[in-house]
Automatic annotation (TrEMBL):
Keywords: Hydrolase, Lipid biosynthesis, Lipid metabolism
Keyword Lipid metabolism tagged: yes
Keyword Cytoplasm included in the entry's annotation: no
Species assigned in the record: Puia dinghuensis
GO terms for biological process, alphabetical: fatty acid biosynthetic process
Matches recorded under Pfam families: ACP_PD
InterPro entries: ACP_PD
Recorded GO MF terms: [acyl-carrier-protein] phosphodiesterase activity
Segments forming a coiled coil: none
Entry protein name: ACP phosphodiesterase
Amino acid sequence: MNYLAHAYLSFELPEITVGNLISDFIKGKQKEAFPEKIRQGIMLHRAIDGFTDTHPTTRQAKSYFREAYGLYSGALVDIVYDHFLANDALTFPPDENNSSLKAFAQRTYERVGDWQAILPQRFARLFHYMRTQDWLANYGHKELIFNSFEGLARRASYMPPPGQAITLFETHYAGLEACYVDFFPEVKDFALRTLQQLQQDGKKE
């Protein structure tokens, strides 16, 4: 799961959204420095990633990239899932201006921006570009997916050049979309149940 999916799987809860989006930038016990609900978001993110990485449908999606990209196939699929989520008519009903997705993106930026003072420095830099370039709403466009592939290749020292990933994405578009359609309702159900458990555990502390 990538940024749009993690934001969506925060169920419109501001602090959960913040924790879910910053989780990859928080190591070990660093999460203890954050308020309880943001910690829940961090833990939710990690649970979602574990569920996603081990799911049979995700393994199928990875298979389209695995020969060329090996361990990086999972990161590529995370980006691809965001593309299909952005174009999911059941989640973001389409209209001429794509207004439901754009509105969700703006709400997400506002929620995260309210916690600007405590964002990890690396995420804060990334969030500036996410917000100003409207990444979340633009994941529906293939061009941004290609840019994301290129950005991943720049950050990953041993990842092969992204050109073949773009070709594989285009070639296997229908198969990857079918994986998303099968997988996303399950991860949404899992995320909701996990969040409810985290909230319940938090009340016991």
